[in-house]
Write a structure and sequence with these properties.
CATH architecture of the largest domain: Up-down Bundle
Number of helices: 11
Strand order of the largest sheet: 1-3-2
Radius of gyration: 19 Å
CATH topology of the largest domain: Four Helix Bundle (Hemerythrin (Met), subunit A)
CATH superfamily of the largest domain: GntR ligand-binding domain-like
Structural class: mainly alpha
CATH class of the largest domain: Mainly Alpha
Oligomer: single chain
């Protein structure tokens, strides 16, 4: 999972740059879904894969714990944050409050160039993901690309509000929202539904109907929460039968 990262990290860099690079690469692996929710990261194995000492890896783990992405257990290692149904509900309640509070103000800051860029990219994902064989390697790569696009769209809306304190609050939960998105199981129909919801939001935004767009965004967040809860319930049923198993590194 992290093996490819070793090629991108040069031990010739200054110590500070090395620590920053390791932290960035592990963070990106988590946010891209290369290591799944609840998976363990063993410090010695990460050191071996990256070809570095324990100190920068330990510092990266501590920093990512501060960002809410990892839990650290003495003598066991670090684990990608996992969420219960109660925590998932709280996350989506918080997400809705944050994303909707300044929505109309943020939406008014969107330019025609912003709309065209997001719509063009969305149409590209629609064409590729709808016509591509489901769960193929290429389909999976484009699915991950769509998740990144989805978050960039929500980021743009939030960042446009101009309230630096509100933006800081948003980024405190942003990683958890991405982990949740990458952990759920996607079918072609699920992806198609998510793309249609974003299309509706963008079309209404472009027409300047901000109140309606806000209503559609609230519905989109609620639909995502429902899907995540259904996925978590299915996962818990499987775990109750076969036991709980997580990837580890």
């Amino acid at each position: 999972m992290l093996g490819s990262l070793a090629r991108e990290i040069s031990t010739e860099k200054a110590p500070l740059d090395l620590r920053e690079s390791i932290c960035n690469k592990i963070r990106q692996a988590i946010l891209d879904g290369d290591v799944t929710r609840g998976a363990w990261l063993q410090e010695d194995r990460v050191c071996k894969i990256l070809g570095v000492s324990r100190t920068p890896v330990r510092e990266a783990f501590n920093r990512l714990r501060g960002e809410g992405l990892l839990e650290i257990f003495p003598r066991k290692g670090a684990r990608i944050i996992d969420m219960s149904a109660t925590q998932l509900d709280a996350l989506y309640e918080t997400r809705a409050l944050i994303e909707l509070a300044y929505f109309e103000k943020s939406a008014a800051m969107f330019t025609s160039k912003d709309y065209e860029q997001f719509l063009t990219e969305l149409r590209d994902f629609e064409e590729k993901l709808v016509n591509m064989p489901e769960y193929s390697e290429e389909w999976e790569e484009h699915r991950k690309g769509f998740i990144r696009w989805d978050r960039s769209f929500h980021d743009k809306l939030l960042l446009s509000c101009g309230n630096e304190y509100w933006i800081k609050i948003y980024f405190q939960i942003r990683g958890l929202v991405i982990i949740s998105a990458n952990s759920r199981s996607y079918s072609k129909e699920t992806v198609k539904g998510a793309m249609q919801e974003h299309h509706q939001i963008l079309d209404v935004l472009r027409d300047g109907r901000y109140a309606k767009a806000r209503e559609l965004l609230a519905e989109h967040i609620l639909n995502t929460k429902r899907y995540d809860n259904r996925y978590l319930q299915r996962l818990q049923r499987v775990q109750s039968i076969f036991g709980k198993a997580h990837d580890s590194l």
